[in-house]
Automatic annotation (TrEMBL):
This is NADH-ubiquinone oxidoreductase chain 5. Residues 3-140 form the NADH:quinone oxidoreductase/Mrp antiporter transmembrane domain. InterPro entries: NADH_DH_su5_C (IPR010934), ND/Mrp_TM (IPR001750), NU5C-like (IPR003945). The keyword DNA-binding does not apply. Keywords: Electron transport, Membrane, Mitochondrion, Mitochondrion inner membrane, NAD, Respiratory chain, Translocase, Transmembrane, Transmembrane helix, Transport, Ubiquinone.
Amino acid sequence: SALLLFISIMTMFMSGVVAIFEYDLKKIIALSTLSQLGMMMFSISLGLYELAFFHLLTHALFKALLFLCAGILIHGAGNTQDIRSFGGLSLNFPLVTVCMNLANLSLCGVPFLAGFYSKDLIVELACQYSWGIFVLLMMFICLSLTVLYSVRLTYLSFVGPYGGGTSISVCESDYSLVGPVVILSFTSLVSGPILSWLNFPAPVLIFLPVFLKWGALFFVGVSLLVMLSLQGVTYSYKWGAVSKLSGLMWFLPW
């Protein structure tokens, strides 16, 4: 279990760091999936099997929503996947913007969305285990990385200045595209508590000191503020070795 714990934490950390330096929309979402798989393995390494399955179910719903929204954006933006050529897409895709941000917030573990019910429970139960400060710190850092790449993706795609990509066509009038997105958005809102009630007949009892109880929310909030304050500064990315290492996915493809 110690080996699985180490591998899962390193999976979360490495995929999170790479996602921050990635510009391919599909790759960012795929790396985010890898990060959440690491979270599930982390849960299994602590012996929380039911919780890992619960996170698998909630994650499947909002990650399917993310991929569908990404598909609509790529389709509407002339089949380009580079988020540097996006920007200001919220004007052309208002509904997809709302749904994709809902999925992103759920992924970050924002309270009362689907991802919060499973992710926050894993984090809080992990805080009850005596694995030491290193494991807890790495877990919170990986939580922060999730928020960082999600905010970056949202900013570059929807909020930031237009990147000068191909002509944008509005395809939200196609109900075969938008219909499943709206349905999955609804499940991303309500599936957390419903699956929680179905999976756990009794509430999970957690005893934590106040600073650990607020730890997850604190890290999510700080990461959000940091990434918003760094917009337009960090995207030069002249970080030398770090940028090269992360941009090439830790040399794993080589």
